[in-house]
Amino acid sequence: MLKKEINLIVASTNPVKVAAAVEGFRQLFPELDVTALPLSVASEVADQPMTDAETLQGALNRVANAALAKPEADYWIGLEGGVAPLGEELAAFAWIVVRSKTGLGKARTGTFFLPPAVSELVLQGIELGTADDMIFGSKNSKQAGGAIGLLSQNAITRKQLYQQAVVLALLPFKNPALYKTHRQPG
């Protein structure tokens, strides 16, 4: 049986985000053949979003900009990593937004706290990936396991963290009768 093909625009060229998006779609919709096109689009927020609201807005903006650039696609997905102060600590997470022509799904990843040395650099205006590379002596960690991979020694990678949230953002598309304005992919 041939799988129905869907075209997914991933609003990023970061290979970790692309892989998380594709694998999340495949995990929830194994009957579909997902073709992904990475596309660099503006988030229209700071390179390092510093609040929950700014991070969500970045994901929403990426999806909107991707849909403007490639309106012929079936789905667009934005994945935006961010941090937010919580008490005396800095929490790290990401927002995932999936859009089709008829619906929208959103989810946030799990949250973890950054070590003080990393937090201090981020609060000084250094992007989290760069701060991680400086503290851990790594190179381009945001296109590999990310902060969570470095901290957990890859027990959880950035791709895994994001992929779970992709699945959660797709729930309205998997359950269209419960989310009246959403349609299932395909």
UniProtKB/TrEMBL annotation:
Binding-site residues for substrate, renumbered to this chain: S12, T13, N14, P15, V16, K17, E72, A73
Cofactor: Mg(2+); Mn(2+)
Residues involved in Mg(2+) binding: E72
Catalysed transformations (reactions): XTP + H2O = XDP + phosphate + H(+); ITP + H2O = IDP + phosphate + H(+)
Coiled coil, from the record: none
InterPro entries: ITPase-like_fam, Non_canon_purine_NTPase, NTPase/PRRC1, YjjX_NTPase
Residues annotated as domain Non-canonical purine NTP phosphatase/PRRC1: 11-173
Keywords per UniProt: Hydrolase, Magnesium, Manganese, Metal-binding, Nucleotide metabolism, Nucleotide-binding
Cofactor descriptive note: Binds 1 divalent metal cation per subunit; can use either Mg(2+) or Mn(2+).
GO biological process, one term: nucleotide metabolic process
Gene Ontology MF annotations: ITPase activity; metal ion binding; nucleotide binding
One Pfam family per UniProt: NTPase_I-T
E.C. designation(s): 3.6.1.73
Family: Belongs to the YjjX NTPase family.
HAMAP family xref list: Non_canon_purine_NTPase_YjjX (MF_00648)
Subunit structure: Homodimer.
Known role: Phosphatase that hydrolyzes non-canonical purine nucleotides such as XTP and ITP to their respective diphosphate derivatives. Probably excludes non-canonical purines from DNA/RNA precursor pool, thus preventing their incorporation into DNA/RNA and avoiding chromosomal lesions.
Name this protein carries in UniProt: Probable inosine/xanthosine triphosphatase
Species of provenance: Cesiribacter andamanensis AMV16
